[in-house]
Amino acid sequence: MFATYLIGLREGLEATLVVSILVAFLVKSDRRNRLPHVWLGVGLAVALSVFFGWLIEYTSTTLLNTSKQRELFDAVTSVAAVVFVTFMIFWMRKAARSIAGELRGKLSEALAVGAFAVTGMAFLAVIREGLETALIFYSAAESAAGGTGRGPLLALIGGIATSVVIGFLLYRSALRLNLGKFFTWTGALLILVAAGIFKYGVHDFQEADVVPGLNTHAFDISSVLDPNTWYATLLSGMFNITPTPSVLEMVAWVAYAVPVMVLFLRKPGRPAAPAKPAATDVPAPTPQRA
After folding, report:
1. pTM for this predicted structure
2. CA separation for the pair 179, 7 (Å, rounded)
């Protein structure tokens, strides 16, 4: 549940910040008459994201007939979720400082075109976060005890609701939040969550007989990590840490988590100073005789 809450909080805050930038720009530029078009675009994006999440669940539970088909489908969606969350984490770290200016520029262009363009611009600004949330949530919920119960869904809704409250307080200047540190800490946690999802995807590939080694365990720590304890449930649900993982699962977890975490936490280097033009040796003028 905490993993899905974190997903809802992180993705929801990104979407909330995008919407608040658009709304603030319209209010400050005295274009409040365009606010309904922004909210229409946001509403359409949310509706499509919910439909996409329902479609993934419907495909897995209804359209696929055999267990191997469902395992293969879950494996593919898990890998896709890992790709999306990795891209999202690094993209936000790079674009955090320039996203406000880019959104204002795009909205200015849309205002010059008309209401339809404003709605479309707001829709496109939010839909990416919504589709990512639906895909990552499904994979995270499936990797946590098979996605059983309503707990993961309630946790996701709670994370989104929290992000909306934080975004509103930021908009009203009633709350100060170091967004750089927030996205760094949540990004690091999401990398561990994504590593667990990737490990779960490899497990599903093994269940579907696509890759071998399902019963070749890397270790057995059942005596230390009792699956019936609360902390084992927390580690399994959050990071998919299990007592008897296969060798290939652990290779996948380490191969993803270690390099991605190192790259994410590494401070970006300062841009190199422009090189000074090299001095050109000009021969001294030869004195001429009168």
Report:
1. 0.78
2. 16
Distances (CA, A) of 2 to 87, 144, 190, 215: 21, 10, 11, 29
Smallest Cα–Cα separation from 93: which of 251, 283, 263? 263
- Which segments within the chain are labelled E, that is strand? none
Structure tokens at 192: 């561990």
Task: Name residue, tokens 């970006």.
Answer: 268
Q: Say which residues have a Cβ less than 8 Å from residue 130's Cβ, sequence separation at least 6.
A: 15, 45, 46, 48, 49, 50, 52
H/E stretch holding 259 reads helix 247-265
For the chain, state the CA radius of gyration: 25
The length of the chain is 290
156-204: per-residue pLDDT in tens?
Answer: 888 888 888 888 887 777 567 777 788 888 888 889 888 989 998 999 9
> To 5 degrees, how large is the angle CA 64–CA 65–CA 66?
105
| Residue 143 tokens, joined | 């990797």
Span 234-264, pLDDT tens digits: 677 667 778 888 999 999 999 999 999 999 9
Contacts of 98 (CB under 8 A, 6+ apart): none
Give 105-113's long-range contacts (Cβ < 8 A, gap of 24+): 107/22, 107/25, 107/26, 111/31, 111/34
Residue type at 153 in one-letter notation: L
